[in-house]
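Hello again, I could really use a second opinion on something today. I've been staring at a protein lately and its backbone has me curious. Please have a think about how the structure follows from the sequence. I owe you a coffee for this, so here goes:
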Amino acid sequence: MSHHEHENNLTVLIIDINGQVALFRDLLIHIGQARDCPELREKIRKLRRNCVEACKHTSQLILPQLRSAVAEGIPADNPHLVLLFFMSQLFLRELTKCHRLVQIIPMDMSGYYDNRAGPSNLGNVISQILLCKQITPDFNQEELCSITKDSQEINKILKEMQEYMPKQENNLERTAALTEDLTSQWTNKTRRNSLYKHMGLLCCVSRPNYL
């Protein structure tokens, strides 16, 4: 694959991840709402897993090249890395939200999985064989464990990418200085407004009463 084809492939993958993260966020909005149902939860689960795998796959295409470039003394400058990093951050936040929503708003998935395999029922099958009794899987608990594992995976990817992210100390310093300046201006303006307000109040109090 040529360099141009490789770049185009990465662009397509990045665009796809962006769409998946956006859709994942939108689907989470419906948890606990009228549209919430087992089918929605399963759609969220599949999308979550697909997005995790897409992030892992894309990072595995980007990071080896960056490591080689840095080893040869070439500065790390990859726009695809930056995009993937920030999208992975957004996805990690949505995973945290997803975990909390599943935790406080569980869904009864037993009927949905009656005639199909659950997300990961291998452990239950083995337990049933060993214990010779039927075990009802806790799908919500399995989902929470799966989300936690996915969050750890994305966090690991973020840490690996962080090493090659562009340094932004100067930008951060300028931003901090600007914020401090704006805060100072706002504080002074607030003080002036407060002073004028109290002066107006004093004028009202001292105004003579005409009969």
About this structure: The chain has two domains: 3-166, 171-211.
